[in-house]
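Practice problem 4.
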């Protein structure tokens, strides 16, 4: 019976080196596979994120100068673009612009105090009163309540009840900022504003078709371009009304009268 010849020290060393090299290859292979797997996950996440972003962008209403606008709204090439004048074609008088967002609690409070005065100024023709609706607060809360409310207001403007609908929106502003209104509420406000019959049918279609949502977005873009930082903001002949001049309705009336005297 043959017996195995004992390995020499050189042979044992060679086997040890071979085993070490094989172990090193396996380790590098595992590392490469792991890196590859991580890269696949990262690339998949990037591609997936880009796809989600693109889908979200598709769902975001983009401004458009060609968007439908309520009757009488200023066109895109006007200094008061996308605003709605409450005075009746007044010229040669001070121009008072009011920037607002229907979700804005401060706008609601402003409306409660200054609304009747602004309406009197508009009705008397002492100034050209222009309301400029925006929807910038949609960026702070889920949903698109500001855009929908502004769009509904635009539908009411078409029905000749814009001012009434405007006031009803503020009177029914949700207690918690960002809660917004349901479509049913926006539809019912039209009846409260006096929109009935065929006009109500037209209003309902205007609202459910989201006819003026892009117009509402245009108002927000105009606000950003004008450098208006918040709402409510008032501009008289293009100059922001100071806190002193908007401290009370009487102070605002005085500022308007002084502007008229200086024209």
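Answer key:
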């Amino acid at each position: 019976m043959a017996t195995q010849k004992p390995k020499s020290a050189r042979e044992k060393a060679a086997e040890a080196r071979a085993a070490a090299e094989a172990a090193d290859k396996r380790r590098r292979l595992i590392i490469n596979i792991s890196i590859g797997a991580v890269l696949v996950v990262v690339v998949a996440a990037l591609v997936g994120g880009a796809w989600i972003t693109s889908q979200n962008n598709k769902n975001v209403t983009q401004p458009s100068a060609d968007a439908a606008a309520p009757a009488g709204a200023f066109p895109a090439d006007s200094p008061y673009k996308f605003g709605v004048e409450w005075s009746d074609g007044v010229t040669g008088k001070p121009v008072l612009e009011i920037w607002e967002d229907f979700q804005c609690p401060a706008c609601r409070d402003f409306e409660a105090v200054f609304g009747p005065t602004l309406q009197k100024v508009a009705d008397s023709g002492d100034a050209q009163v222009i309301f400029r609706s925006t929807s910038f607060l949609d960026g702070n809360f889920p949903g698109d309540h500001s855009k929908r409310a502004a769009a509904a207001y635009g539908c009411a403007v078409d029905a000749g009840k814009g001012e009434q609908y405007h006031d009803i929106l503020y009177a029914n502003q949700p207690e918690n900022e960002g809660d917004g209104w349901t479509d049913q509420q926006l539809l019912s406000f039209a009846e409260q504003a006096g929109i009935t019959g065929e006009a109500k049918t037209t209003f309902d279609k205007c609202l459910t078709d989201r006819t003026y949502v892009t117009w509402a977005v245009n108002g927000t873009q105009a606000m950003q371009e004008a450098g208006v930082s918040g709402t409510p903001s008032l501009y008289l002949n293009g100059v922001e009304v100071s806190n002193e001049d908007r401290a009370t309705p009487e102070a605002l009336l005085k500022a308007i009268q002084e502007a008229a005297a200086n024209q």
